[in-house]
Amino acid sequence: MTFALHGIPVSKGIAIGQAVLISRAALEVSHYLVEPGKEEAEAQKLLDAFNQVRLELDQLRLGLPKDAPQEMAAFLDVHGMILADPALAEKPIKLIRTQRLNAAWALTTELNDLLEQFAEIEDPYLKERANDIRQVAERVIKALNAQKDALNEPDFLPSSDVGVESIIVAHDIAPHDMLRFKEHAFTGFVTDLGGKTSHTAIVARSMEIPAVVGVRHASEMIRHGDWLILDGEQGIVVVAPDEQLLAEYRKLQTQALKEARKLQQLKHSKTETLDRVDIELFANIELPEDAIQAVKLGAVGVGLFRSEFLFMDRKQAMPDEEQQYQEYRRVVDLMHGLPVNIRTIDVGADKALGAGGTDVSQTGTSPLGLRAIRWSLTEPEIFLTQLRAILRASAHGQARIMIPMLAHAKEIDETFRLIEKAKQQLLQRGQSFNPNIQVGAMIEIPAAALVLPLFISHFDFLSIGTNDLIQYTLAIDRADHAVAHLYDPLHPAILNLMASIIDQAKRANIPVAVCGEMAGDPMLTKLLLAMGLTDFSMHFSQLLLVKREILKANVGMLKARFPRVLKAYEPEAQAKALERLLA
């Protein structure tokens, strides 16, 4: 039966394909399609893991001391009975043979189905048996992981046809899990949770793949293998579409491809408005190789290199100075002399370090907690290591340091003290760097915006991080699905705050850019031009869309109409003022 689900569109485009259901449990295990012809070997791995766990339970049962509680023996007996039931392995083996899911993925898929069935049982005793099944499955998965480690298998293996017509469906996907998918040909993403500016959404846009988030209960209502239409423009997910609907959306896909080809013609045209105002478009990147595409699309520099993505999803220790230096230098080299703003690590909130990093799980999960520069200043050796790596990269081009989440004068002072210390350490080693490297600050806390003269007096350039500025000004956690609908870049407070920052910076002759998601939204391009913004920084996938709007804009006319927008506090009055501005 065809039905539609609605969510928040975060990455435009239309995807058509079969659902690949990634459960919360599945995200914690390996998941890949086994190579054709190796299905039986994979099924045997699962059976071997069952046998291994059965032997473990037998040994535990035999090794119980005489005075052990009877409940312990009963507990082991129940688990033994569950393992002995051939039904537990039947469906996973079928999934391996028919859909080529790897063993751990197939087992967690069956586990989810069983847990859903038990959730509907009213009898409390029978309901409790769900925990026994989960514990048995976890033991089997542990045994499978031991096999994988012995064979040195990676967590995610590509296959020749993986994701050709596949759409990931998950409860939620952390940024580091998104990075694991980045090199594979999935055509779309659907999640139960998330908002427009969650880091998961940002990474989805970076992959230029259609995505809809905040689709409540999608992972429960969509089954593995269901055909889906994902409309990243409208935020709609159609499940089990009929042939007529599929034909309509395939036609829309073709039209979108034609529009994309037209956009490519703008790559080499000058970026200026109708009244000859020059605008500079910078790229936001997560990984060094993103710089290649940024240059191809005409970016005049990297406005934001999110360096924390080098630290995420790592099983080894955190990257040392040499490793970081090589990565930063690679970006600098790829940009061929254009400026590269390297933001120091913004760990915390929904961006955790890899296994080798410092544990921030207790203090860094809140957007108001120990994150960004606050965290770096509590880990001075890690911070100094990163600063030295950036400084060394500055010897090869225009590498610049950008500091996130500053608010206090003492944070500014301590940051510059450590930058000077890093310089002295390099001088003592005799290693080259640019002694006059530019240092910029991100304005993303209302306190920073309200004391902007302090920042203007210390820094070479400013960058407005609208994602955090909006969430802190409106007291909204942008990763919290329950309040995501209140996140509003057009709130009068936000517009007045941003207009003030841009105006003060321009008057002081300090370069100022917008590097949040607002900069990459073509619907907001004319609004930002009206504020006087001339430096935009966005994901490279949005560069040409924004450029198209700039080429059609007249800054003089926009500035003349903008004061009325700033004075409009009621929604109806603001809508009319914006309509007049954008007419």
Description:
- The protein has 3 domains: 3-24 and 171-248, 3-Layer(bba) Sandwich (Glucose Oxidase, domain 1), CATH 3.50.30.10; 38-149, PtsI, HPr-binding domain (Enzyme I, Chain A, domain 2, Orthogonal Bundle); 269-353 and 366-582, TIM Barrel (Alpha-Beta Barrel), CATH 3.20.20.
- Helix 6 links the parallel strand 4 (166-170) and strand 5 (188-191).
- Strands 1-8-7-3-4-5-6-2 form an 8-stranded mixed sheet.
- The chain is an alpha/beta fold.
- It starts with a strand and ends with a helix.
- Helix 1 (39-62) runs antiparallel to helix 3.
- The chain has helices at residues 39-62, 70-84, 87-99, 103-119, 124-151, 175-181, 199-206, 218-221, 243-264, 290-296, 321-334, 372-378, 380-393, 409-429, 446-450, 452-458, 466-473, 492-507, 525-530, 543-551, 555-566, 571-582, and strands at residues 3-6, 8-11, 14-22, 166-170, 188-191, 211-213, 227-231, 236-239, 280-285, 302-306, 340-343, 399-403, 439-443, 461-464, 512-514, 535-539.
- The longest helix has 28 residues, at 124-151.
- Its main location: cytoplasm.
- The active site is at 199 (tele-phosphohistidine intermediate), 515 (proton donor).
- Phosphoenolpyruvate binds at residues 306, 343, 467-468, 478.
> How is the CATH topology of the largest domain named?
TIM Barrel
Strand content: 5-15%
Count of alpha/pi helices: 22
Q: Give the class from helix and strand content and strand pairing.
A: alpha/beta
The CATH architecture of the largest domain would be Alpha-Beta Barrel
CATH class designation of the largest domain: Alpha Beta
**Terminal Cα separation, in Å?**
43 Å
Low-confidence stretches: 151-163, 355-364
Most strands sheet: 8 strands, mixed
Can you count the beta strands? Answer: 16
Strand order of the largest sheet: 1-8-7-3-4-5-6-2
Rg is 27 Å
